## 1
Amino acid sequence: MSEELRRYLIDYVEARLGVYSTYLTEILEKNIIMLLVSFEGTTMGFGSDFESLEFLRKGGLLERKVKWGERNEYYIYTLTARGREIAEKLKGEGAPEVNKA
C-alpha cells in the first residue's frame, strides 16, 4: 500500500511541475507574490493559487508573511535560499509548460 501511495503522490506532483515552476520563476522575477486573504474583513475563498503556494512553502521553497493594509489582509510569499537556487536553475532551462491538472 505504501508503494501505491508513493507512486500516486509522485504522479500528482509531476503533473503539476509546470505550475510550481511558474510560481517559482515569477517570484524570482518580481521578488514577491501577494495573495489577498481578506477584503474589508471578509475572508476570501482559497483556490489553486493558495494551494500551490502553500505546497511550495511547506516544501521549504517559499516563506510567507502576513501584511495588513487598510482593512485587507495579504499573504506575501518570497523565495527561501533553496527556492531561489531552484528558481534560477528553472529560469536557465527556459519557460516551463504549464499543466493545470
## 2
Amino acid sequence: MYLYNVVCVADVLAADKQLANEVEFDLRKFEEQEKQQQKEQQKSCNAAVSCCLLHIVTLCSYYLLSRARMHNTVITAASKLKSIYDGVVFTSVCMTPS
C-alpha cells in the first residue's frame, strides 16, 4: 500500500510541474527551518555549557585561593615557631655555664 502511494505521488508530481516546484520549495523551507532550530538549540546549549564552566572555574579559583591562604598561614606560623625555637636554642646555648 505504501509503495503504491509513493508511486502515485511521484506520478502526480511528474504530471504537475507547478505542484512539484511548490512541494520542493516547501521541503527546502522546512529543511532550512530545521537547520535554524538546530543552530539555535546548539547556541543555547553552548551558552549553558559556558556558564557552567565559568562557575566551575570560579569555584576552583576560590578553592585554590583559600588553599593558598591557608598554606601561607601555615608557613607564617611555622616561621614564627622556628624563630621562637631558634631564639630558645640560641638563648640556652648562650646562657650555658662554661
## 3
Amino acid sequence: MKTNKLKLNINRIRSIQCLFLAIIVSIFGYVYMVNMIAFDIAQKGKIANEIAVVNSQIGDLEFSIIESKKEMTEDLAKEFNLTQEIENDTIFVLRGKNTRLTFNE
C-alpha cells in the first residue's frame, strides 16, 4: 500500500515538474517571439526610410536626365555615337516609350 502511495506521489511530483517546465518554456518562447516581432518592425521602419531616400535619389537622376535631353545637340550626339551617317545625312536616334531604339522622323 505504501509503495502505491509512493508511486502516486512520485508521479504527481513528475507531472508538476513537467508542468512547470512547460510553463517556463512557454514564457521564454513568448518573450523570444515578442522580441523578434519588435525587431522586425524596427527593421521594416529602417527599410522604409532607405526606400524613401533611394526614391528621392532616383527622382533627382530622372530630373537630370530630362534636363540633359534639352541640351542634346548634334555635336554631342556624335560624341556619344548616337548618330548614324547615311550619305552625308545625319539621323538622330531616340528612345521610345517601349525602350527600343527608333528613328526620329
